[in-house]
Description:
73% of the residues lie in helices and 1% in strands. The chain is built from 13 helices and 2 strands, in the order αββαααααααααααα. The termini are far apart. Helix 10 packs across helix 13. The protein has one domain. The chain has helices at residues 2-33, 54-72, 83-104, 109-130, 143-163, 170-188, 194-217, 227-246, 250-255, 258-273, 286-292, 297-318, 324-350, and strands spanning 36-37, 49-50. The protein is an all-alpha fold. The chain has a two-stranded antiparallel sheet with strand order 1-2.
Amino acid sequence: MTDSIFILSIPILFTAFTSWSFTYFLIKFLSKLGILDHPNERSNHKVPVPVGGGISIIFTFGFIMLTTYELSGDHERLTLFPREQIAIFICALILAIVSFIDDVKSVSRILRLVLQSFAVGLCLFLIKTSNPEFLVFQGLLPDTIDTILTFLLWIWFINLFNFMDGIDGISGVQTISISAGIFLIIGIAPTITSALGEVMFFNMILFASSLGFLLWNWQPARIFLGDVGSVPLGFILGWSLLKLAANGFWIPAIILPLYYLGDSTATLIKRLLDGKKIWQAHSEHCYQLGVRSGMSHARVSSYILLTNIILIAMAVISTFQESVVANIIIILISFSIVAFLLMFFRGRNVN
């Protein structure tokens, strides 16, 4: 066990250091080019900050994949990276490029949605081609309905993850929490299919590269993630969670991203009840209200990290439970924990 932890720690630390180092140079490069996020009435920062930090995560991701491929010595066959995995990275790269353009100069919502739909549609097609039994809802729905809902859920999660990125450290915290949870869940699984092995590898890289970036994005942030980071991260994490659910781990797939799901849903309902336009940009998420109340970005992100650690524990426990009642209790506890934090953030704003 100790040897396994040591062996895993080496690539994780190397990946985190690569991401940290690249982000350091990226800050200087973006600042020199004047690619900055200037404060406005909805901002939670007061000075211009370089935006585009997601470039370091995507760069590190590609670099580690290429390094792993070279070290494998298997240069005649792409057995190490099946076409689905390659498609996931290429589509994430395309989304990152378009999103970076959007960070610098606005891109139409329709074009962004079309590209997201293409990426999700292509990857779903490849997944279904290699595994026709890929069913996120575990056969509870007809196959066609299952595929359509999976497509919509994936698109929804990409945009949810993008919209929720609003204060220093929050999306870095969410990424390392979800990816670490997925890595642990697959790691303790009695048997690992090749499909889950791919997901496990991706999330190990995602965890480490996001950790390296987070050290620069923690309050006071020296660089922002930008759409170039949040969109592809939502894409890869959405794929990971859907794969987890389709392989029987649907409870962890719900629990691990629960803070973002809870905050976005609660805010959406509140805006609907207040008669506001839900598609307009705003700063009314619960974590943003926590910052408005006087809490620092670091404190709010730390509360979310602590909550996520508890959610990871709940997700891990659920994998050992066969009792329906036990799993329902775990889900209720998880929802209650997130609801408590959301009410805490909103309550402080009221006071």
